[in-house]
Amino acid sequence: QVQLQEWGAGLLKPSETLSLTCAVYGGSFSGYYWSWIRQPPGKGLEWIGEMNHRGSTNYNPSLKSRVTISVDTSKNQFSLRLKSVTAADTAVYYCARGDVDALGFYVGSGYWGQGALVTVSS
Amino acid sequence: DIQMTQSPSSLSASVGDRVTITCRASQSIRNYLNWYQQKPGKAPKLLIYTTSSLQSGVPSRFSGSGSGTDFTLTISSLQPEDFATYYCQHSYSAPPNFGQGTKLEIK
């Protein structure tokens, strides 16, 4: 049974760096998309970025200058760093595993972490 | 970026009703369209991927159709546990944007 679990600091001050890690239990780390998605309180889902099955990263253009996603395959973990946070970055942050079709396209995320609330406040 | 637009934003229905939610992409995404269900305080759950493929364990009352730019999610007979928010997401290219969501409420 595949499980994902996020952890990291839950309260940040403006200008600090958000750092979250997602541990993957019960499955292979290779051959999947590993994504971060966030959801501000009461709002919809925003895709932050991914590391794909080829080892390449892609980021949301609106966050690209501040985001880094990295993977530690030896620990079955992947991480999110978001620099220079503001109150607008307050959200529940989810990690997720995405599947890949025969053509290499991402075809949805069937496994998600439980979500980690990060609040940015002075 | 490919933008996704869902309609309606909210919907009231009764148990047993047939419900359809639509999702439109700003350009063709072939069949790379996924649907998620989210309940309050929970992570989204993948219901349907690549337009019409049912994720394992999802009841058959959920179905999806469409291609190109226009897609639908249909729930054939609403059950009490189906009241939730539904999101579409394309997966044709990065960023795989989500629609704004459709909140399905009990009438």
Helix/strand layout:
The complex is a heterodimer of chains A (122) and B (107).
Chain A: E1 3-8, E2 11-12, E3 18-25, E4 33-39, E5 46-51, E6 57-59, E7 67-72, E8 77-82, E9 91-100, E10 106-112, E11 116-120
Parallel strand pairs in A: 2-11
Antiparallel strand pairs in A: 1-3, 3-8, 4-5, 4-9, 5-6, 7-8, 9-10, 9-11
Chain B: E1 4-7, E2 10-13, E3 19-25, E4 33-38, E5 45-49, E6 53-54, E7 62-67, E8 70-75, E9 85-90, E10 102-106
Parallel strand pairs in B: 2-10
Antiparallel strand pairs in B: 1-3, 3-8, 4-5, 4-9, 5-6, 7-8, 9-10
Summarize the structure.
Chain A is an all-beta fold and 122 residues long.
Task: Explain what this protein looks like in three dimensions.
Chain A is mainly beta and 122 residues long. Helices cover 0% and strands 54% of the residues of chain A. Chain A has no helices and eleven strands. In chain A, strands 2, 4, 5, 6, 9, 10 and 11 form a seven-stranded mixed sheet that branches. Chain B is 0% helix and 48% strand. Chain B has strands spanning 4-7, 10-13, 19-25, 33-38, 45-49, 53-54, 62-67, 70-75, 85-90, 102-106. The chains are: A mainly beta (122), B mainly beta (107).
Keywords:
heterodimer, A: 122 residues, mainly beta, seven-stranded mixed sheet, four-stranded antiparallel sheet, 11 strands, globular, B: 107 residues, six-stranded mixed sheet, 10 strands
Report, as a whole number of angstroms, the end-to-end distance of chain B.
Answer: 36 Å
Counting helices, strands and paired strands, the structural category of chain A is mainly beta
| Quaternary organization | heterodimer
Q: Give the beta-strand count of chain B.
A: 10
Number of discrete helical segments of chain A: 0
What's the rounded overall pLDDT mean of chain A?
A: 95
Greatest interface and its residue counts?
Answer: A-B, 26 and 24 residues
Alpha-carbon distance between the two ends of chain A: 40 Å
Number of strands of chain A: 11
Shape of chain B: globular
Rg on CA atoms of chain B, Å? 13 Å
Tell me the Rg of chain A in angstroms.
Answer: 14 Å
Strand content of chain A: over 45%
Question: Describe the biggest sheet of chain B?
Answer: 6 strands, mixed
